Amino acid sequence: MTNSNPESHDDQDQAAPIQDARPSSFLRDIIAEDVRTKKYGDAQVQTRFPPEPNGYLHIGHAKAICIDFGLADEFGGKTNLRFDDTNPEKEEQEYVDSIQADVRWLGFDWERLCYASDYFPQLYEWALQLIKTGKAYVDDLTADEIRRHRGTLTEPGKDSPYRTRSVEENLDLFIRMKQGEFPDGTRVLRAKIDMASPNLNMRDPVMYRILHATHHRTGDEWCIYPMYDYAHGQSDSLERVTHSMCTLEFADHQPLYRWYIEQLGIFPSQQFEFDRLNITYTMLSKRKLLQLVQENRVNGWDDPRMPTLCGIRRRGFTPEAIRTFVAAAGVSRTNGVTDVEMLEHFQRDDLNHRARRAMAVLRPLKVVIDNYPEGQSEQVEVANNPEDPSAGTRQVLFSRELYIEQDDFREVPPPKYYRLSPGKEVRLRNAYFITAQSVQKSVDGSLVEVHCTYDPASRGGNSPDGRKVKSTMHWVSAAHAISAEIRLFDKLFSKPDPYDVAEGQDVLDNLNPNSLEIVAGAKLEPSLANATLEDRFQFERVGYFCLDPDSIPGNLVFNRTLPLKDSWARIEKKAGA
Ligand code: ATP
Ligand code: MG
Predict the structure, then answer these.
(1) 170-190 in b/e burial notation, b at 16+ Cβ within 10 A?
(2) Which member of 286, 323, 427, 541 is catalytic?
């Protein structure tokens, strides 16, 4: 299971050209045009990335971050990181902190760190202004009644009986809402727009609700909280955001975004929508990811199987590869689905260039070289990265007793099995040719060790007489190897569309029960004892790996970022053929 083509040590990725890291897009064209026509005078391009601090960022957010920061940067503009923290029941400081760390890790820095909650006083003042101009009213209907009055896509809504309240009464009630006179859910402030609008978002949307909840930043100062639609556009405007980019599901909210700004006569930020990033076998919803964490279906937000930025970081993914992937996936005005193989392809491509090669045997089988002198050992020189000569070489110890993969030996080889079997000669990578002679078994019949002979003339991995072998295998010296735990990952969901469920089932029913495999007692070349969390490795023939933070000296844990085989390159080749 460890690799696709164990016969060849040249099983490297097909390196694809790294693409321009800037996504070409209609968004760029819009901004370029606005800059050209000086739509905002001499004001610089200003964008924002506006996460709600109710969970950890995932790779879908990486797309929004690359667009918001990337485009502003291209035009010499600036980007704010703004927390859309209008929902105190679900928001926490832990998320605020993780989001900042993740944005920085992706390689971006913000102009200003902002919070929608900083604008609560201004938003309140503006609400009073809308009441005074007859554009907002306090409604006493229950949430349920409001829903029933809203109508449907085919039927207009009905006016609330409270819609005609006087300005004085609305002002009085709204001020008392703020002063905490009323229990949760008893009243709301609504914009007075049009209950017959074909756009449901324009049917007198709620602006404020009563919620006696402690906010992670403003504490108990407020017991009314603005709704997303009322807070978002005004926050953009306050920050003089010129281009407010968000995902397509907000397109229907755009008229409302504009309505508030026009009624208030404030800086005219403009909203533009682009497609969400969807990836096969991947669930990108903070709410559902939180459920995975809370129900212990994964080991926390940074479980290496999670599509969160902290998860894929722990798994060994790099910001460079994610940015390249996001650029290649592109930006459009219709939602689509991107193959997860494409993400993996860009990650392999990146790691292929940067990862130091090392030898590690996941499931060890002892090999004894009977004609190698006992107690002797020698150094063989190995390239650290054949893709990068500047990475240099290192010395690896060879000795009489070695470990190879259990998979690399068969006592009775099946047809076309070219690895080690009795009487068969193979190459030990960078070392010698060996031939299996006999096996030693325990009383229960299980294999204990394989006895071999080596050809001293084949030092370095080639025989002077030009003899060919069909297989090259990795190995470690038994006496010198270090033991480690290896974590192998498979897709977290077993269906390309995780939401493809039978009636009555939930997306979590599509979790892949075999997404984590822990291999204890792997044997690694000793240089890996010095690995740091930043290092990236290619364990020859087994995949790309990095050290896991669970490691302690003497008990190292390595995560497999990805196996070597690149199915995307194959898909592309096939498509081209
Ligand atoms: P989720 O659906 O995972 O809960 P969200 O949209 O609620 O995400 P926000 O914190 O509101 O999360 O998102 C911040 C920004 O990231 C928004 O502008 C949103 O449009 C964008 N974003 C969220 N998910 C994706 C995605 N899959 N692809 C691209 N952009 C996304
Ligand atoms: Mg959201």
Answers:
(1) bbebbeebbeeebeeeebbbb
(2) 286
